[in-house]
Amino acid sequence: MSLYAKMTTNDAATILGVTAQAVHKNLKAKNLESFKSQNRVFFGHETSKKLFDLKFKKKVVSFQVVKGGTGKTSLTHSFAIRANLYGCKVLCIDLDQQGNLTQAFSVDANNAPVMIDILKGQVEPREAIVNISPGLDLIPSRIENATLDNLIMLEKYSLDKVYGDILKKLATNYDLVVIDCPPALGQSVAAATLSSDLIVSPLTPEQFSISGMKVTYEEITSLNRKFGKNIAVKVVVNKFDSRTALSNEVLRSILNHDVFKTLLCKTIIRSSQDFPNAIYSGTNIFNNLKITPAKEDIDLLTREILEIENLDNELTAVNG
Ligand SMILES: Nc1ncnc2c1ncn2[C@@H]1O[C@H](COP(=O)(O)OP(=O)(O)OP(=O)(O)O)[C@@H](O)[C@H]1O
Ligand SMILES: [Mg+2]
Known about the structure:
By secondary structure, the protein is an alpha/beta fold. It has helices spanning 9-16, 20-29, 45-52, 72-85, 100-104, 115-119, 148-154, 162-171, 187-194, 209-227, 245-255, 260-263, 274-280, 293-306, 315-319, and strands at residues 7-8, 35-37, 40-43, 59-63, 90-94, 130-133, 136-139, 176-180, 198-203, 232-237. It has two domains: 1-44, no CATH class; 54-306, Rossmann fold (3-Layer(aba) Sandwich). The protein has 15 helices and ten strands. It has a seven-stranded mixed sheet with strand order 6-7-5-8-4-9-10, with helices on both faces. Strands 1-3-2 form a three-stranded antiparallel sheet. The two termini are 28 Å apart. The mean pLDDT is 94. The chain binds adenosine-5'-triphosphate and magnesium ion. Residues 72-73, 96, 100, 180 line the site of magnesium ion (MG).
């Protein structure tokens, strides 16, 4: 349990709008596994699954935007982990040849099958799955995935089927599939878009970030039109720092933009060293028992994307 993400009973109590005692009582009554450290009681995915007993709307969510370094991988990683901490069964797919998500999960993909091997028919999709922790799996990536675009083009794979067919084979086992895309707009990213229900585009308070978002949005709109799809897009502001003029300026520009203001997530992810630190130390932001801004923001984002915002209506899950 030490490296796994943790939810404390206080955390669960706040989420459910009940007292910590009510959560303790429920854990006991249902005989659910919990742990104790620094006078705090905490638990992981298996217990959350039974405690919250949530019915998830099955979804494929891609994190993508053409601009590099805006937080696609960091948000994919922490969102997937938080969703899993709500009891959601999650498959992450690393489609970026940089393999940053794979490294974030401390997986060595050197000899592991990755998406390019699946597309070449050398392995079955399920053979590429690596288990990270209970209810959380990953299809890793390595540099050879740089040829995904070429392969899709040379083999004339249908963009709307190539990943969709693979996901169909796997999706029955999962509540959520999360795809981390490279900062590009090639065939592979287009195919990921077409196999998704929702695209989340992180936008950082930097110059040209809105123009990068425009390019991605236009690409998704044109794919929607061409393939008769209705893939939703959400923009999430990441690395926000209210003390800087640029953060406020970028937020204002989005709120003044006719289209982007309608796509903007309610959640804003504040700048926090916890994101680089967690990945550097091979853990995740939910590994410790502290209350932190990074955890609060990712929790809100997770609930917004999973549409589980009003969990205090689920009181019966704990009291019933
Ligand atoms: N909210 C945040 N606060 C502070 N640092 C952050 C935040 N989100 C991400 N970072 C840092 O910003 C850097 C880039 O993040 P990340 O690798 O997630 O971006 P990316 O969009 O996946 O990049 P790429 O386009 O190369 O795939 C990393 O060092 C990461 O730790
Ligand atoms: Mg990345």
